[in-house]
Amino acid sequence: MKDRFGREIRSLRISITPKCNLKCFYCHREGHDSENINLMTPSELGKIVKTSLKFGIKKVKISGGEPLLRNDLPQIIESISDDNLKDISLTTNGIFLEECAQKLKDAGLNRVNVSIDTLNPEKYKKITYCGDLEKVKRGVKEAINVGLTPLKINYLALSNTVEDLDDLMNYCRELGAILQIIEFIPLNEHLKKYHVDITPIENKIAEQCDKVITRKFMQNRKKYLVNGLEIEFVRPMDNTEFCSHCTRIRLTHDGFLKPCLLRDDNLVDILTPLRNGEDIEKCFIECINRREPYFKA
Ligand SMILES: Nc1nc2c(ncn2[C@@H]2O[C@H](COP(=O)(O)OP(=O)(O)OP(=O)(O)O)[C@@H](O)[C@H]2O)c(=O)[nH]1
Ligand SMILES: C[S@@+](CC[C@H](N)C(=O)[O-])C[C@H]1O[C@@H](n2cnc3c(N)ncnc32)[C@H](O)[C@@H]1O
Ligand code: SF4
Ligand code: SF4
């Protein structure tokens, strides 16, 4: 199904918990800062995902908060798995990845994205408040060992992490991981000082690259192949092209369909109708009707 702006719906991003074991100072909390712990069960999530397939969803991304904090994550993955889904992936801070990678793979997870903004352990601890970088790196290795690939490293470009980019490029090249360079979305005035224009970084990589790929169904994001390393750019800020190719809807941890990451005023309650045994297809129709590009031309 397409929305009013001709954008297909292909990907569902699910936050399964608002809780996190880290406290990154910049966190956007998936655009839904609610501490409501009315979490959905694996079976409820399974029903919602199966219904979403009728509207064109082909890929599911599991996120949070920190999704590995849910002990029933393997059951969630089993419950949402379906032959008609092309991809189930997870985005994580990686702290608990080493111990659960194999279980997640066995449950049907295809791949993981792991967030690492710096390879300096002290700086990593400062940014995340308390994170242990060595543990995350062991998790990354284990995820690759068990085949949760292609694995992406999410690097957020901040004024205090730009100097870490070269190290991360080398790290990803050695691992055979994709490096994803993400533009920072400042959530308030105070955080604006951390925003960096990543255009010069992208231009430099574009000059060196052997091949460019455009992800047509993923916000027209550009991927560059540079000397064996794949680098993807996520540039959401003021980017009308990004929003006009957005194929993603979200499900919040407390059971609302969310038409756009950057808006929290147009949510559609899906959990109440589900728990009342009512039809939930109408919730998807309403959510898709409410979709509009955040940054418009
Ligand atoms: N503005 C905006 N940012 C997004 C959207 N989807 C993902 N992002 C940002 O993209 C970055 C990477 O997100 P990930 O969870 O790793 O997933 P992804 O790269 O979007 O998805 P895959 O390519 O399928 O792995 C995060 O900073 C997200 O906030 C979106 O729809 N809108
Ligand atoms: C909100 S986290 C949730 C999953 C998991 N806890 C993690 O850190 O990967 C998902 C992604 O959003 C990114 N992110 C968080 N706040 C952001 C912001 N203000 N701007 C851009 N990306 C952000 C993180 O770097 C991470 O890669
Ligand atoms: S680990 Fe993820 S959810 Fe937790 S604070 Fe950092 S970015 Fe936010
Ligand atoms: S419309 Fe733009 S800001 Fe909103 S979810 Fe899509 S890409 Fe993100």
Automatic annotation (TrEMBL):
This enzyme's EC code(s): 4.1.99.22
Tell me the GO BP annotations in alphabetical order. Mo-molybdopterin cofactor biosynthetic process
Entry's cofactor comment: Binds 2 [4Fe-4S] clusters. Binds 1 [4Fe-4S] cluster coordinated with 3 cysteines and an exchangeable S-adenosyl-L-methionine and 1 [4Fe-4S] cluster coordinated with 3 cysteines and the GTP-derived substrate.
SMART domains per the record?
A: Elp3
Top EC class, one word: lyase
Keyword field: 4Fe-4S, GTP-binding, Iron, Iron-sulfur, Lyase, Metal-binding, Molybdenum cofactor biosynthesis, Nucleotide-binding, S-adenosyl-L-methionine
The signal peptide annotation in the UniProt record is: none
Task: Tell me what this protein is called.
Answer: Probable GTP 3',8-cyclase
Q: Which organism is it from?
A: Methanothermococcus okinawensis (strain DSM 14208 / JCM 11175 / IH1)
Q: What is the primary gene name for this protein?
A: moaA
